[in-house]
Amino acid sequence: MSVRDRPCTRDGRLQEVFGAPVADLYETAVGTDAPAVLTRALELRSFLALTEEQVTHIRDRIYAFMAPEREMDDLSADRLRMDTLWLQAALDARDSYTTALDTLLRTLPTPGAQARPVPVTRRKITTTLPPAAPAPRAGAARSHRP
Description:
This protein is mostly helical and about 150 residues long.
């Protein structure tokens, strides 16, 4: 399954912010004139979708391992410890991707807001040089004072 087709917990927010379904956003992002923010948002969404799939897979494996119908002799603390470490790593990654995507989406201007140019005041700096002393003329005789 392609990452585009995997569900993600932030799909609704992406659709709300960009005004189109996620599948359409991916189509828009492949164009050469795609906004950089859309490309970044979809990259984060792709990482998040994969990570959420890993979390679900590990969680389901732990549930299956701990199912009441399993034999008590099959239980292994070492195996559960390793699955717990995997789950913690996947949850940490999910939290990081979620935070990054939420931050990116929060910093976007609202859809109706137009970007206004920032007025730039250019200051003109002028300086004046002191008047230069006249240069002595070549061959001019110096006057002697008595």
